[in-house]
Amino acid sequence: MSSLKIALFPGSFDPFHNGHLEIVERASQLFDKVVVAAMRNPQKAGPLFSLHERESMIEKSVAHIGNVEIVGLSTLVVTLAQEMGASVIIRGLRAVSDFENELQMAQMNRELSGIDTVFIPTSAEYSFLASRLLREVWHYGGDVSSMVPPPVASALAESMR
Ligand code: ADP
User: Fold this and answer.
1) How confident is the prediction along the chain (161 residues), in pLDDT tens digits per residue?
2) Which partner from 28, 43, 91, 108 sits 20 to 30 angstroms from 100, CA to CA?
3) What are the chain's domains?
4) Residue 131 a catalytic site member
5) Is 3 a catalytic residue?
6) Cα gap 18→149, rounded to integer Å
């Protein structure tokens, strides 16, 4: 068995924003390798970007970090974690309101696989960022370009045309 500590950071990332990027940067300092998984979320209908588009945007946004791999999949998080050899799942926490749901998910994932979840608290400057809110603001013509990495800002501008 490999002794590399691999962490899986799953999410919808629709779109990937600066809060997500900061979590990847910090996780990459804590683990040997971070796998960012853009997942299809059955509870979120009508995605803004396809899984493939999200994967490619994340790949460009994290190009400056050496130990990160990107996958785009629709499967159970723990199944993917096992396939990737990840021993830890990473989730970001913005506020107490995130915690209830995250705790339940972490307990379910541990029950299913024995894999633990590590929570990384967001930096205060990003705590208001949420993909759902960004989609809403963008939909009504608001400028969100300073809240997302440049490759995501370009993709948003492109899809406006
Ligand atoms: P979900 O996985 O629920 O579809 P997202 O794709 O928006 O949600 O987020 C993926 C992960 O990133 C989750 O762990 C979420 O808590 C975390 N996250 C989202 N927004 C932020 C933020 N502003 N700062 C830190 N972590 C965040």
Assistant:
1) 558 899 999 999 999 999 999 999 999 999 999 999 999 876 667 789 999 999 999 999 999 999 999 998 888 999 999 999 999 999 999 988 889 999 999 999 999 999 999 999 999 999 999 999 999 999 999 999 999 999 999 999 988 76
2) 28
3) 6-160 (3.40.50.620)
4) yes
5) no
6) 6
C-alpha 91 to ligand 1 mean position (Å): 7
Catalytic residue, candidates 5, 94, 127, 145: 94
Instruction: Return the closest-CA partner of residue 112 out of 148, 75, 65.
Output: 75
Is residue 60 annotated as a catalytic residue, yes or no?
A: no
* Residue 68 identity (one-letter amino acid): V
Assigned token pair, 150: 């440049």
- The pick from 23, 24, 39, 147 for probing ligand 1's pocket by mutation, whose C-beta has the most ligand atoms within 8 angstroms, reads 23
* Beta bridge partners of residue 38, listed in sequence order: 11, 72
